[in-house]
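anyone seen this seq b4? input:
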Amino acid sequence: MREVYVGIDVHKDENVFGSAFDGRAKGELIGKCSADMNRTLSFIRSYMKKNELTKEQLHICYEAGPTGFVLARRLISLGFDSQVIAPSKIPQRAGDKIKSDRLDACKLARLHRAGELVAVHIPDMEDEVIRDVCRGRTDAVNEAKRTKQQLKSFMLRNGYRYTGTANWSEAHMRYLRELVMPHRAQKMVMEEYLLRIDTATAQVVRIDDQMNLLLQTWSRRPFVEALMGFRGFQTTAAMVQTAEVGDFLRFGHPKHLMGFLGMVPRENSSGNKRSQGSITKCGNSHARWMLIESAGSYRYPPKISKALSKRQEGLSREVKALSWHAQNRLNNRWYKLMFRNIHPNKIKVAIARELSSYLWDLAHIIR
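predicted toks r here
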């Protein structure tokens, strides 16, 4: 039974198809069609019928990108062998100076046949919905933060400086709303800034409510609740980390999880010389960012606070012991690195990298 490998160069408006048959035959262009889901499926079925192929003989792949995983999930649900490829892991030849959609599709097909491509994890629909909601919350928080900075710059340019104890408190907002500007147009601009802040803040509250509602029926709720028993992980951080990574058990070793998060150092070694640089920053940037933010909590001495104690209610003794062990070990490591005069940001990344191994251990306890 002959095998056919199909590479799809996906775009917003159209998809380009290339194929490579068994053996060492050169890849060839199949054609292109609209990026519409039904048109794409019809094109694949027509190709199968023309070449008398079955679903078992067809192996389809395309690069991960802004088009997401919708096509791959649909193909898999229909019984096709479909993979989404990591673009950063696609081999590049130094002599390739010409790039086109046709060449990219044929190249994907050839490399897929040779087994040189690295597939990424395809999240299920439930995980992706929650991930989109979590990323929407991050966008709303960033919008509020950016607008606040713009408003502070506007006030500074006009000679106003708030002298209260806390920025963006009720007292600060009341001060801004009651402030009289020299010109009515400036007052209008300030009110627009305040309106944008109020809108983004209300959006964060609405998304938080939606996240709490989704958590009640999420299949990964036990892991989220167990992760909330760790220092630095409240509801939002635990849900973001879980939604971005998905199934922690798919990593055979904690080092594989660290590599997925892009938190392992670059290396350029040769002979007896070993040279390491900054972290690779490959993989999921959102998960890496959230883990690094949570790792900052471990600079404080180990402690079971009132809030953490409440989050740990109902958790098993094994989970609580792992959480306490993480606090002690990571805090000790933080101070050892600090006494070596390591930059604080590097310390935080090192702690986050080790914290990821505790999350891997937690997944094996909860499974």
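Residues 4 and 21 are 5 Å apart (CA to CA). The chain has 13 helices and seven strands. kinda curious what u guys think
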